[in-house]
Design goal:
This protein has helices at about 15-25, 35-40, 80, 95-100, 105-110, 110-120, 125-130, 150, 225-230, 240-250, 255-270; strands spanning about 5-10, 30, 50-55, 65, 70-75, 135-140, 145-150, 155, 160, 165-175, 180-185, 195-200, 210-215, 220-225. By secondary structure, the chain is α+β, with helices and mostly antiparallel strands. The strands form 4 sheets. Strands 4-5-10-6-7 form a 5-stranded antiparallel β-sheet. A 4-stranded antiparallel β-sheet has the order 11-12-13-14, with helices on both faces.
Length: about 280
Amino acid sequence: MKPAPFDYLRPRTLAEACAALKTADGGAKLIAGGQSLGPMLNLRLVQPRLLVDISGLEALHAFSETADALHLGAGLTAANIEDQRIDTRAVPLLQRVAAGIAYRAVRNRGTVGGSLTHADPAADWVNLMPALGARYELAGPAGSRTVAAADFMTAAFETLLAEDEVLSTIIVPKPAPGTRLGHAKIARKTGKFAMAIAVVVAEPDGGTCRALIGATHGRPILVEDAGARFGLGTGRLDEPGLAGLLADAGITTPAARHLHLTALRRAAAEAFPQAIPS
């Protein structure tokens, strides 16, 4: 099958892209890497009247580093990060996660922003960015606004992004010195979407101990006080409490629950090697 007919626009600026989206009144789709949208167009799962190609916008390929954060243009690809064409060493999980996404051909073209706005619950960036406390800059005809990554995805394949907005920048805070990081991904084979993802971020000196359980049926489960609530890092993981949290998110079968708890144990073991959860 091939896509339904559509008009094509390659804007020269971010403002022009936003204006085109506004004029289309919900009938347009953005395309950058096209790793998700391309197959959807071919299967006619989406049939936009207008395709707005933002792959050439310089603003979306920008990268900068400040004292406390990395600013990633939404058009940067997983390969940009994997190959360290941009220096993301201040947030070491970025390169590691990038290298584990799908296959090299996908990483060459798939963009960070495209994955975030597609909002597949099993996607890697969707689950990493909230755990890192990232924020997103959204550009629109009336200006820009910033939202927390934890709030951006509202449900499976749904986000806060308005029809005339473009995700322009991902702001990733630098972990404080001594921050413990853990990440685990369970998939049937390398390159496949995750069946379970977990991320642990524990700040030093008794600061926030954040845990994320991802690849659920919807938005990731983010727990800001995972140490106090579920014993993360103590060696006594509160599995009944976590099972209740998973059940609230629709994870009710023993096999699925086991996968998610295993991923969390692995991430916690990496962050706290001296206290392996039981």
